[in-house]
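Reopening this ticket.

The earlier resolution said the output was attached, but the attachment link was broken on my side. Pasting everything inline this time so it's all in one place.
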Amino acid sequence: MDTDCGTLVGTSDDVKPTLKNPRDDDSNSDIDDGRDGAELLAAAEEGRGEDVLSILWKNPSLIRTGDPVGNTVLHMAARDGDIVTVCNLIAFLKERHNEDLKEVLRDVNVDGDTALHLALKNGHWEVAYHLITANNDRITPYGLAKKAGFSGLCERFVYLYSCESYDVDARMEQVRRDLMSWSRSIHVQWTKLKKAIEVGEEDVFISGLRKNSRELLWQKDHYGNTLLHAAATTFGMGPLSKLVQFMISNGLTDAAVLGNKDGDTALHFATENKDLTKAICLIEAKPSTVYQVNHKGVSPLYLAVKYGHEDLVKLMVTQSCLPPWESEMRLHPKHATLAHLAIKERSLGTLDILMEHLPELVKGTNEKGWRPLSYAANKGYLNEVTYLLTHFPKSAEEGDEDGSFPIHTAIGGGHVSIIKAFYKHCPQTFYQIDHKGRNVLQIAVKYKRADIVTYLTKELKWDDSFSNVKDNEGKTFMVYTFIFCLMLFISCYVLE
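Inline output:
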């Protein structure tokens, strides 16, 4: 495919729209100015190229933001063979930040890989070609490798020919042929090692891994699974234990962050299979993987919370340190916090562990914009509500995204026992009004919660001034009551 990296490209080979700012398009008017590096990396990881460009237009300085292993958005696009996004990023840099283009192309991750190295490793020749030709001084793969201090894949071919005697196309063709031959050899070795893992020949496996260990650990099958994935799913602990020890001893623990086509790491597999022993072993290799999300936004920690593995959850949150910039992306999988999940699964022990070590979860919201206390109150989960009101009383004063407070959401749920818990632990919440100026009495009538209206009016001692409070529309409690009774009368009349 002949793609021009000077213009933004679309999904079709013959469509090459010119570079333009998404701000000029009304369809992008809803882009949130608050996007940050975490959201940019999440978009790149999920292959949402248009979102990547939209975020970069808002904040170009994020172009060099890296994930836990140092991969930038260009690394991710090159690794995945996303030629459209690669060319769009190059066009973006040429158009607005040409002086940064060389630096971005030479950025390396923790393994010393540039975006070009990742394209070559994964056999994306067209992507590699565009990355080379984008460099104004025509640096070869070996030139980049030298600057990056990379000592792996490309350097294996240096002795075969002189880089200076070939033009770019010839060098790329030579690399392609040599790499294909070398890859076949690695694949044969990898297949033998995978078989050794499956039959439990641990010594054979470790012995075969000593040569080309990095390449073999990074090699994947057609599902994207590595040797570590195989060891995590095979019977017995022997292969996995020895493999993890080998990785730790040889500084190769970054292989633990590799995901398959679904984005699942080996730790995802072990946690999903509820194999706690293997999960603990994998956490030892790379603790940060407990927060690594797959393409569905699910992390191993999320799975541990879902299945109620309290010991594993405790190990995960105590052994792994989460960088602050990642918290928004990692702690809010699937548009809800881990606290919401623990509440949903009715696992009070897990909730206690999470809140002890990750107290910031108390302020997180789900897809409805509810914080954990509001969610538990609306569902009628008395134990969880009592726990949060007792240990995090200030959360009762934190408003939800819709402008209401947890007591209002509790009324909406219609559970009198929850309202009693609020009155016992945080009675001041009964004087809170929502964004429309409505108090608890007015909200109870508004949503036809007769049992709660009865409790509020009979069990509690309200003065006249409270029941006569007007909301933003000028309606008092009595007005809401009249409307409620009128609607009840009309519905009964219709039924008759």
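Reporter confirms the inline version is readable. The chain has 28 helices and no strands. Residues 199 and 234 are 9 Å apart (CA to CA).
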